[in-house]
C-alpha cells in the first residue's frame, strides 16, 4: 500500500487571535521546537465549527472564543514517508483541514494546557506572519496558505478593540 492509496483525515485547525492580533501557538509535548496551532479530527455527526470549538477546549482548555473567519476550501498536507502507516493509526496519508480564525475573548488565565490529555508543553502569542517559519516542514505549505487566506484577520481583530 502506498500513501496515494490512503485517504486524508478530516480535521479542523484554529488560529486563535488575541486583542493585539497575535496568534496563539503551542509546542507539541515531546518535540522541542515543534510549534503548531490547535487542530484535531472531526467526530462523526459533528460539524467543522463544532469540532473547532471542541478542539479548542480539549487542547488549550478554553471556550472563550468567537469564530471570525474560515477557509473557503479544505487545505491538505501529506505526511512524510517515514510516518505513513504509523501516524493516525496508519489509516491516513495526511490531513484535510478546515481552518477557523477565532478571536480570543478571555484572559490568559482562561488558557490551560494542563488538560486531561495534554498536547502542548509550552505556548505563547506570536506574530501571525511568522508562523510558517516556526512550523515543522511538512506542514509549512498549509501554514503559508493560512497566512495568506487570513492576512486581514489580525487587523480586523485589533480594530474590534478600538471600535
Automatic annotation (TrEMBL):
The protein's required cofactors: Mn(2+); Mg(2+); a divalent metal cation
Record motif Nudix box, residues: 40-61
Enzyme Commission numbers on file: 3.6.1.-
InterPro entries in alphabetical order: Nudix_hydrolase, NUDIX_hydrolase-like_dom_sf, NUDIX_hydrolase_CS, NUDIX_hydrolase_dom, RppH
Keyword Hydrolase: yes
Keyword annotations from UniProtKB, A to Z: Hydrolase
Domain (Nudix hydrolase): residue spans on this chain: 7-148
Alphabetized CDD domains for the sequence: NUDIX_Ap4A_hydrolase_plant_like
Keyword Electron transport attributed: no
The family this protein is said to belong to: Belongs to the Nudix hydrolase family. RppH subfamily.
Known function: Accelerates the degradation of transcripts by removing pyrophosphate from the 5'-end of triphosphorylated RNA, leading to a more labile monophosphorylated state that can stimulate subsequent ribonuclease cleavage.
Protein name in UniProt: RNA pyrophosphohydrolase
The species this protein was found in: Thalassospira xiamenensis
Gene: rppH
